[in-house]
Amino acid sequence: MEKETQIIGRYILAFVESTGKVSSVFERKTRDIFANNGLEISAIEEEGWYDAHSYAEAMHQVEAEVGEQTLTEAGAEQAKNVPWPEQVRSVSDGLNFLVEADKQAHRQPSGSYAGSYRYEKISDSAGRVGIVEHTPYPVANFEGVFKGGVRSLADSSTTEISSAEPRDDEQAAFEISW
């Protein structure tokens, strides 16, 4: 991710809101951490653009101070509240939508943002997600987003997510079944 990359405010607000669904104490702590990184939540506008590196740094501090599991739970809460467009009719459609939404939520001076992760369909009830090597965001949050997204879209009540072998250009990968 380039130095001057920006992220749209609704992602910042969704993350902080999701922490409140995990715990009100966690949300207060998250708000303080974000403010210390130049992202005062009361000043964030949904359609405004903000420094993505500050967002990433705040998320890593939340992970360090509150814990990886809580960050994963917050990611799952974020995904539960995704307004799925009409064209999303399956889990695979949803995971592809999340990839595109991530790209559109970022802008950088050189043009298009390559994205934080990629999705590959393995079967009608399984897929693989790879987290791009230089993505600055915590992997634990992505894991939660995928888990929550699949749970909200799957016909099955059983969702499994497990670590997979990352490829050369990935920092982490997951296999997901539903």
Structure description:
The chain has a 4-stranded antiparallel β-sheet with strand order 4-5-7-6. A 3-stranded antiparallel β-sheet has the order 2-1-3. It has helices at residues 9-22, 24-36, 52-66, 68-80, 91-104, 139-153; strands spanning 6-8, 49-51, 106-107, 117-123, 126-132, 160-164, 170-177. 47% of the residues lie in helices and 20% in strands. The longest helix has 15 residues, at 52-66. α1 crosses α4 and α2 (24-36) crosses α3 (52-66). It contains 6 helices and 7 strands, in the order βααβαααβββαββ. The model has no long low-confidence stretch (mean pLDDT 93). β6 and β7 (170-177) form a beta hairpin. By secondary structure, the chain is an alpha+beta fold. The protein has 2 domains: 6-80, no CATH class; 91-177.
How many structural units, i.e. domains? Answer: 2
Sequence of secondary-structure elements: EHHEHHHEEEHEE
* Rounded average pLDDT: 93
Number of strands: 7
Shape: globular
Secondary structure tally, helices: 6
**Fraction of residues in helices?**
40-55%
Region (Disordered): 155-178
List the helices and strands and how they pair.
Blueprint: E1 6-8, H1 9-22, H2 24-36, E2 49-51, H3 52-66, H4 68-80, H5 91-104, E3 106-107, E4 117-123, E5 126-132, H6 139-153, E6 160-164, E7 170-177
Antiparallel strand pairs: 1-2, 1-3, 4-5, 5-7, 6-7
Region (Disordered): 155-178
